[in-house]
Amino acid sequence: MTKYGVIVGSIRKNSYSKGVAKAIAAGLPEGSEVNFLNIADLPLYSEDLDADSPAIYEQFRKDVKAQDAFIFVTPEHNRNIPAALKNALDVASRPWGQNVWAGKPALVASQSISGISGVLAHHSLRQSLVFLDMPTMQQPELYIGNTADLADDEGNITNEGTKEFLSGAGKSFSEFAAKFIG
């Protein structure tokens, strides 16, 4: 059974990013284990903490290491990824030489309530994943715009065409990830 970690860049209650992530996960094979990892409570990363990391850092690193593959869904904050997402990437890639993201296949999706679809955050995240040594699925590209029109008040995607597209991406990702999972 493949374990898929899900990292949602938005820490907002009823986030559209979480709704997009759930719609992608719906396309994963039956029996897959899907784990939404919480990034909201991670203290800001500081190299000063490497020698004696807080327990929450250690638990997050352990949780990341336990996953086989990752789905990242991010909104765009000021033309980049949210601070909480960047912090999570940093926490699990440190101390230096102990990057627990390495080798894990990834899918990147971005969303925005505007038509720009979080494209700049999407590409910024991809750049970080290259450095973290995560093979990242290239197609289909998942830029989801106007999400407020595609979702309900809880952030769940309700537009049938969008749900079908995202579910299909989840299926494609499971096939992509299988190439890297031993």
TrEMBL record:
Pfam families: FMN_red
SUPFAM superfamilies according to UniProt: Flavoproteins (SSF52218)
Any Gene Ontology CC annotation: cytosol
Domain NADPH-dependent FMN reductase-like: from-to ranges: 3-147
GO molecular function terms attached to this record: FMN binding; oxidoreductase activity
Domain of life: Bacteria
Transmembrane intervals: none
Name recorded for this polypeptide: NADPH-dependent FMN reductase
